[in-house]
Amino acid sequence: MRRLIAALLILGICGAVAFWFLTAPQMSSAISVPNHDADPVNGERIFLVGGCSSCHAAPGAKGEDKLKLGGGLELNTPFGIFRVPNISPDPKTGIGAWSNRDFLNAMLHGVSPANEHYYPAFPYTSYARMKPADLIDLRAYMKTLPVVSNTVADHDLPFPFSVRRGLGLWKRMFLNGDAAVDLATGDETVRRGQYLVEGPGHCGECHTPRNLIGGPKLDAWLAGAPNPDGEGVIPNITPHAEGLKDWAVSDIVYYLESGFTPEFDSVGGSMVAVQDNMAKLPDEDRQAIAAYLKAVQALPDGFEKPKK
């Protein structure tokens, strides 16, 4: 019996040590910062594609107030309540004191300057596909935005989701920076669209269903999902009959620019803010996004339709 207890104790210690190492955040010093002259004009373009203000501005903000990224929005999810942080240039309650290395490590690896995991409610699984130079440009643009002093409360999550360290295992399964889909095309417009949709645009975060532990189901990429904001669903945007099959590239471009569908319906829900940002982009970016959406695999709806 003593030997059995000793063996179990040793196994427990070995398991704890293995867990500690497997779940360790990547040290911020390990990331490479490119030697790049920051371009805040391109940074604004990336900011719009990413829709940063949609989550980080105060709920209901309009006009210039959408550039005040003081955070505070509450996201009520099946895993608990996530509170969106302050990412304004305020050095105390925002990210004004961050270095470029801190910013890159947060965006590409989901790790804070304090070397703690961020929860994937912050869509770094998409941002991991971004070019570091674009992130430096984004950082340069964000430094020009208003300083907002606002301390946001921590998340309200039940056990075991409250244990940040466990996210290290989740990242090993779902965070790698690889393209979501392998497109058999060398078309530059489609490739640009893939970068915008899969990276800064993080469209798959809402339009792709997830498994029980919150990982994206890449075999149902962009095939629609339950609405994370509550009732209803996020639509299928693949070129399937249940998605965008009947939409031409020009229809998608017009929708992103005007907010009107080919049937003259108008954009609604959380897509209102997304479309408002897309309308401010150069037309070539909307063309690229539309070309990509018509090039991905056509898939049936990836979600169970709500019962009427």
Entry keywords:
308 residues, mainly alpha, two-stranded antiparallel sheet, 12 helices, globular
Residue windows where pLDDT falls under 50 for at least 5 positions: 15-22
Distance between the termini: 60 Å
Strand percentage, roughly?
Answer: under 5%
- Per DSSP, the total helix count is 12
How many whole angstroms does the radius of gyration measure?
Answer: 21 Å
Element string (H = helix, E = strand): HHHEEHHHHHHEEHHH
By secondary-structure content and strand pairing, the structural class works out as mainly alpha
State the strand order across the main sheet: 1-2
Shape: globular
Number of self-contained structural domains? 2
Mean pLDDT: 87
For the largest beta-sheet, the strand count, sense and barrel status come to: 2 strands, antiparallel
Tally the beta strands.
4
Percent of residues in helices comes to: 25-40%
Gist of the model:
With 308 residues, the protein is mostly helical.
Characterize the structure shown:
This protein is mainly alpha-helical and 308 residues long. It has two domains: 31-178; 180-308. Helix content is 38%, strand content 4%. The chain is built from twelve helices and four strands, in the order αααββααααααββααα. The chain has helices at 2-22, 40-50, 52-56, 100-109, 124-127, 132-142, 167-174, 188-198, 204-207, 249-258, 271-278, 283-295; strands spanning 74-77, 80-83, 225-226, 233-234. The strands form two sheets. Strands 1-2 form a two-stranded antiparallel sheet. Strands 3-4 form a two-stranded antiparallel sheet. Strand 1 and strand 2 form a beta hairpin. Helix 8 (188-198) packs across helix 12 (283-295). The protein starts with a helix and ends in a 13-residue tail after the last helix. Residues 15-22 have low confidence and may be disordered.
